């Protein structure tokens, strides 16, 4: 599971020993700086507003209104995003996270959001550093998490070009392509 507040997967977090070794190394490079380990706040204690929308029954199985899920999709991974998360500043969060499994699901979600005038924020690998995944408005919004759409669809061996679905992470795509070319 990805960290809601910063980079990486929770399961791959540094151990206490690794954190101490890293802090000792950085301290030699930046003497006199405060290297206090800042723990993220519990998103459940941040008082996130409840979702303002409910998905239709036909899409309910693709949707999540879980506060940790919503907090994890409220921002990208730029330094300013991580810093605000560590400060517990979650001003705007998506109302629902929708995880389509097929292209048809994407069409159905977009049709629903168009009919109901709900903003849709596409979320690919979740590594945005330009503010593109942050709902910076007060109207209802869903985040369309494309993580399940992560296949390498086609590779042209001559041009070495690949057609890859939007939810693919770079390292997985690179590995998949390397085995094919």
TrEMBL record:
Residues 90-181 form the FAD-binding PCMH-type domain. The keyword Oxidoreductase applies. Residues 32-51 are annotated as: Disordered. Its cofactor is FAD. It comes from Mycobacterium kansasii. Belongs to the FAD-binding oxidoreductase/transferase type 4 family. It comes from the Bacteria. FAD binds at residues 122-128. Keywords: FAD, Flavoprotein, Oxidoreductase. The lineage of its organism: Bacteria, Bacillati, Actinomycetota, Actinomycetes, Mycobacteriales. GO terms for biological process: lipid biosynthetic process. InterPro entries: Alkyl-DHAP_Synthase, FAD-bd_PCMH, FAD-bd_PCMH-like_sf, FAD-bd_PCMH_sub1, Oxid_FAD_bind_N. This is FAD binding domain protein. GO terms for molecular function: alkylglycerone-phosphate synthase activity; FAD binding; oxidoreductase activity.
């Amino acid at each position: 599971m990805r960290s809601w507040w910063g980079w990486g997967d929770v399961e791959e977090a540094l151990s206490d020993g690794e954190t101490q070794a890293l802090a000792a190394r950085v301290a030699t490079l930046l003497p006199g700086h405060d290297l206090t380990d800042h723990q993220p706040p519990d998103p459940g204690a941040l008082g996130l507003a409840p979702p303002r929308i409910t998905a239709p029954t036909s899409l309910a199985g693709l949707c999540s209104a879980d506060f940790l899920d919503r907090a994890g999709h409220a921002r990208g991974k730029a330094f300013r995003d991580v810093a605000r998360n560590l400060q517990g500043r979650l001003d705007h969060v998506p109302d629902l996270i929708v995880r389509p499994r097929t292209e048809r699901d994407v069409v159905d979600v977009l049709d629903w959001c168009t009919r109901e005038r709900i903003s849709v924020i596409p979320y690919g690998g979740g590594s945005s550093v330009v503010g593109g995944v942050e709902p910076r408005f007060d109207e209802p919004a869903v985040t369309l998490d494309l993580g399940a759409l992560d296949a390498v669809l086609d590779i042209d061996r001559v041009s070495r070009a690949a057609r890859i679905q939007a939810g693919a992470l770079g390292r997985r795509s690179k590995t998949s392509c390397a085995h094919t070319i």
